[in-house]
Design goal:
Elements: H1 27-38, E1 41-42, H2 54-65, H3 79-93, E2 103-106, H4 108-120, E3 126-131, H5 135-143, E4 147-152, E5 154-156, E6 161-163, H6 166-172, E7 177-183, H7 195-208, E8 211-215, E9 240-245, H8 247-250, E10 258-261, H9 264-274, H10 283-292, H11 297-320, E11 324-326, E12 333-337, H12 346-357, E13 359-360, E14 362-363, H13 371-374, E15 377-381, H14 386-400
Parallel strand pairs: 1-13, 3-4, 3-7, 7-8, 8-9
Antiparallel strand pairs: 2-10, 5-6, 9-10, 11-12, 12-15, 14-15
Helix pairs in contact: 1-12, 2-10, 3-10, 4-5, 4-9, 11-14
C-alpha cells in the first residue's frame, strides 16, 4: 500500500467519450447567440420564421384534444402516419413500401441517421460521405465507431454549381467500406445529384455490395430540376435506407417527426437501434403529419415556387454585395465565396459580419474534414419571410461599398 502522502500519479480520464472529443458546441449555437446579442438577422440556422399550414397545426391540436398520441404511440410509429408515408413514396416516386414492415417513424431525420449508423456499422467500418456534410453525420459515425471518409464536392465556376467526382468516389471505396451516406438535395451546397451521378453511385454500391443511407429531407425543395430517390434505381431498393422528415416540407421543425423507408431487414435493423434512443416521440404530431402528407399537389408546388423566389431574392442580393454566389438547385441554403470581398477566413468573416452589417451566416469550414477546402465559403439560409430577406439584402449592400 502506498504511503498516505505519496503523490497521485494516475492520469485523469476526460469526462467526454473520446469518440466525441472533437465535437464541441455547434457553430449554430454560437452564431444564434451572436445574432441575439447583436440584433442581427439570423440567416445562419436553417429554420423557417413562419409556421406551416394552419390545417396541419389544427390537426395536431385536434389529436391532443381527442387523446390520440398523448400516451406512448406504437414503437414503429402510428399506423396512420406509416400508411401516409408509404402513400407518399408511391405517389411521388412510384416506390411501393409496406407500411407495416418497411416504414419506421423517428424523432426527426437526425435520429433516423443516428439509428441507421448505430445499427449498420461495426467499429472500424468506413463510411463515405459527401463533403461538406451536415455536422451530425460526423458525430453519428463517431458514436457508431466508424471511420468517415470524405469525398469532396467542388464548385464549378462555369456552371455556378457543385458537382460529384464519380472517379473520386470510386477511389474512396476500400475493403473496409460498409456504407455510403448520401445527401441529396445536399446541405450545405444545394447540389441535387443528377440521374447520371446517382446511377454511378448505384452501380458502385451493387458492385461492391455496399449499403447506402440517403438523407432526402429537402426532397420537395428543388428548383428547375427533379429529385430522384436512389432507391428507385435498379438494384438499390434492397440496399438503400431512405430518410426524410416533415420539418423541411411543412415548416414544423420543432415537431421532430422523421421516417425511414427500406426493405424489411434494413428497417428491422434500424428499429433495433432506434428503440433504445427515444423509443417513441411526437405522438399527437404524428397524426398531424399523416394529414400533411396527404395535402394536395398544389401545396407542394406552391412551397417550391415560394422558396424558388426567396432563393433568387437572396442570391441576387448577395451577388450585388460582391459575393461569388453558387445558386443552389435545391434546399434552402446558398453557398457563397468571400474571396471577391477580400476575405479568406470564413470563421473570422462570419464572426465579424453581425457587427459589420447586422446579418448572421455560417462558415462552411465547419462542414469539412479538410477545413482548408471550405475556408473561403459561407452559407446563408433563405427560409425566411420575403420582408426579412429584403432587409438582409439591404444591410449586405454595405459590403459592396
Amino acid at each position: 500500500m502506498a504511503p498516505i502522502d505519496a503523490p497521485d500519479t494516475r492520469t485523469e480520464r476526460p469526462l467526454l467519450n473520446r469518440r466525441l472529443a472533437e465535437f464541441g458546441t455547434t457553430i449554430f449555437a454560437e452564431m444564434s447567440a451572436l445574432a441575439a446579442r447583436t440584433g442581427a438577422i439570423n440567416l445562419g440556422q436553417g429554420f423557417p420564421d413562419t409556421d406551416g399550414p394552419d390545417s396541419v397545426r389544427e390537426a395536431a391540436v385536434r389529436a391532443l384534444r381527442e387523446g390520440r398520441g398523448n400516451q406512448y404511440p406504437p414503437g414503429p410509429g402510428v399506423p396512420e402516419l406509416r400508411t401516409a408515408i408509404a402513400e407518399h413514396q408511391r405517389r411521388w416516386y412510384g416506390l411501393p413500401y409496406d407500411p407495416d414492415t418497411e416504414v419506421l417513424v423517428t424523432a426527426g431525420a437526425t435520429e433516423a441517421i443516428a439509428a441507421s449508423l448505430l445499427a449498420l456499422l461495426e467499429p472500424g467500418d468506413e463510411v463515405i460521405a459527401l463533403e461538406p456534410y451536415y455536422d451530425s453525420y460526423a458525430a453519428c459515425v463517431a458514436m457508431a465507431g466508424g471511420t468517415r471518409v470524405p469525398v469532396t464536392l467542388r464548385p464549378d465556376a462555369a456552371t455556378g454549381m457543385y458537382h460529384l467526382d464519380v472517379d473520386e468516389l470510386r477511389a474512396a471505396v476500400t475493403d473496409r467500406t460498409r456504407l455510403i451516406l448520401l445527401n441529396t438535395p445536399h446541405n450545405p451546397t444545394g447540389t441535387v445529384l443528377t440521374r447520371e451521378e446517382l446511377t454511378a453511385v448505384a452501380e458502385l454500391a451493387c458492385e461492391r455490395d455496399l449499403i447506402v443511407v440517403t438523407d432526402e429531407v429537402y426532397e420537395h425543395l428543388v428548383y428547375g430540376t427533379e429529385h430522384i430517390p436512389l432507391a428507385s434505381l435498379p438494384g438499390m431498393r434492397e440496399r438503400t435506407v431512405t430518410i426524410s422528415s416533415a420539418g423541411k416540407t411543412f415548416s414544423f421543425t420543432g415537431w421532430k417527426v422523421g421516417w425511414v423507408t427500406a426493405a424489411p431487414p434494413l428497417v428491422a435493423a434500424v428499429r433495433s437501434a432506434k428503440q433504445y434512443l427515444t423509443f417513441v416521440s411526437a405522438g399527437p404530431f404524428q397524426y398531424a403529419v399523416a394529414e400533411a402528407l396527404r395535402l394536395p399537389d398544389s401545396y407542394f408546388h406552391a412551397l417550391r415556387r415560394d422558396h424558388h423566389a426567396r432563393r433568387d431574392l437572396l442570391a441576387d442580393g448577395l451577388r450585388n454585395a460582391g459575393f461569388t454566389v453558387y445558386r443552389p438547385a435545391g434546399t434552402y441554403f446558398i453557398t457563397t465565396d468571400i474571396r471577391p470581398l477580400g476575405h479568406t477566413d470564413g470563421f473570422a468573416f462570419c464572426r465579424a459580419l453581425p457587427e459589420r452589417c447586422g446579418v448572421v451566416a455560417i462558415p462552411n469550414a465547419v462542414f469539412y474534414d479538410h477545413r482548408e477546402q471550405g475556408a473561403p465559403f459561407v452559407r446563408f439560409a433563405f427560409c425566411k419571410r420575403a420582408a426579412v430577406l429584403e432587409e438582409a439584402v439591404d444591410r449586405l449592400k454595405s459590403l459592396a461599398g
